[in-house]
Amino acid sequence: MSETWSTDGPLPPESVWEYPRPPRVEPDARRVVIVYRGVVLADSRACRRVLETSHPPVFYVPPGDVRTDLLSKSQVGTFCEWKGRATYWNLAVGGCTVSDAAWSYEAPSPDYASIAGHLAFYAGKVDLCTVGGERVLAQPGDFYGGWITAEILGPFKGGAGTAGW
Asked: Could you report the per-residue pLDDT of 107-118, keeping only the tens digit for each?
């Protein structure tokens, strides 16, 4: 008997230690919703998941599915050896500002062109992120932005003592 996985249901269990390095990008049609202070920031069924060894997936939402009017460019920037230069975005809702709540790769390296302009949000900086109706947990630490769901198996890089992994 085989199981059928709906686009809004969980995926089969995945170990982050089986994800590749360099990272792989794949489409994900499950519904992704991001909320802060009661405002829906993003609602999409056209995300891209970036899968990298030791990290929970990072979900990149197409800009057309994001309330970009609530975002302003931050002064922060980082560089990924695979994807290139990241732009960070501050979030402003109802008089509250969250610094560096999201990031994007405006001109990523060619292997990651499918995420150009898409936005990834830190689950720990907003009130709610869901994938297929499931509330996600933020990746440990304050640098990486992976989203942990029931099917994702660790241990995960990012917490105390994992910097050398």
From this structure: 999 999 999 999
